[in-house]
Design brief:
Chain lengths: ~200, ~100
Amino acid sequence: MSTNHNRPLSDVEIRVKALESLLVEKGLVDAAAVDALIDTYEHKVGPRNGAQVVARAWQDPAYKARLLADGTAAIAELGFTGMQGEDMVVVENTLDTHNVIVCTLCSCYPWPTLGLPPVWFKSAAYRSRVVLDPRGVLSEFGLEIPAEIRVQVWDSTSEIRYMVLPERPAGTEGWHEAQLAALVTRDAMIGVAKVTHPNE
Amino acid sequence: MNGIHDTGGMHGLGPLVVEQDEPVFHHEWERRVFGLFLPIAAMGTFNLDEFRHAIERMGASGYLNTSYYEHWLHAFETLLVEKGVLQQTELAARCAQIAQETH
């Protein structure tokens, strides 16, 4: 990277450069490997992966059964594996239960299917409050869950990563898998939104 | 270990701020910290539990006032020095050198 800057570097920028340059000089880290990892998680891994899993589950009851029984294996069938996806549990929204995921202790998140987590998911505000007042937090996302529907909050352990299987929206009968996947959002797979029909 | 990182159920940790169309990274230094995670982990110097523990050992004020990738950076620096891979003095010297060069 260039050292020609229009402004002095911040302390944190300096610390990162110092750490990386020392590790590279000592031959402990390959800068090209760092670049490749950044590219993968910035451009190749993300919630479009999870959306494919959801759409497949909506289309194929046998796949859905496998997904709910062994999330890690069923997700791997679509080729999505790797760090932070080693122990996947998929939780299904039903007529009487809405699910939402959190990691209260850190910010564990299913990278292979959802990519890297947004800042709000990592924030102390979300982590502290979604277990205390889930309906209130969901309401701040514009999602009102009726009182008769149970809200189930899933808190990651050091190993398990959760992902929500949202409800298939009405009016999508006969749609192709790719059309269905295009409707599925990151927030719906976290559980802070529903998947909606485009005409809704 | 109980501590500030164990946020579940705490009160008063501020409003929920949601950024629309958020980028994966907000700063170049966040990219570098993220990209360093796996190569550093692959060195076998520490395991994931030690990494988390290094973050959990941050003081409450430091933990709450710094971002996710600053927590990671803190853990890298802490553990690599504790395990003897880097010396605190060489990290400090390199920081001073970079600050001088980019001033």
